[in-house]
Every structure is written in structure tokens, then in C-alpha cells.
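Work Package 4 report. The design task specified in the project plan requires that, given a folded chain encoded as C-alpha cells, an amino acid be chosen for each position. We show below one input record used in the internal validation round.
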């Protein structure tokens, strides 16, 4: 079974009311942009997003739920985000899901 964590991200409105677009900074010049159902995204206080957050044309900082797939070298881990992308991030960037 995979462990679930939170990963910092920027969140914008998606094309449908039940989804949001998230952006994860992967280092200098690298970003992952994905779309997920709103229940996989949390605000900065780790609370579920209100249906009106963020407003149209706005972005907020928050967290996306991810699944840790495996540990890698140099304090890196491989995680899967709700958009089905598998990325490498620093183990230090993961927060425990409460």
C-alpha cells in the first residue's frame, strides 16, 4: 500500500466546477501543471477548498495529495499526483497528511 502525503502547489480554477488546476515547482525552469478533482487539493491551512476558492483568474497556494511510490537516491522520492503524473521531488517537500 502506498503512503499518502501533501505536496505544496499553486491552485487555479479548472474547466469544470469540480476540478482545479495545480502547478508544482520542480526546480529551476521545471514545473508540472495538472488537473485534479477538488477533493485532492487543500488550502494553506490543510483544509478542503471552498467551492469558490480560488476565484476566476486568481491563484492560491495550497497542497495537492500525492502517493509516495518509492525512495530514490539523494533524498529524492517518486510520487504520483492525481493527474496520474509520476514525478521526482525532494523528500523534504512532502508533508504528512493529517
Amino acid at each position: 500500500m502506498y503512503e499518502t502525503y501533501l505536496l505544496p502547489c499553486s491552485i487555479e480554477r479548472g474547466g469544470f466546477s469540480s476540478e482545479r488546476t495545480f502547478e508544482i515547482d520542480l526546480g529551476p525552469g521545471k514545473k508540472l501543471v495538472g488537473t485534479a478533482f477538488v477533493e485532492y487539493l487543500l488550502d494553506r491551512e490543510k483544509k478542503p477548498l471552498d467551492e469558490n476558492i480560488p476565484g476566476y483568474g486568481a491563484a492560491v497556494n495550497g497542497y495537492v495529495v500525492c502517493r509516495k511510490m518509492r525512495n530514490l537516491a539523494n533524498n529524492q522520492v517518486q510520487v504520483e499526483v492525481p493527474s496520474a503524473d509520476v514525478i521526482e521531488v525532494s523528500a523534504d517537500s512532502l508533508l504528512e497528511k493529517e
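The chain has a mean pLDDT of 94. Validation will be extended to a larger panel in the next phase.
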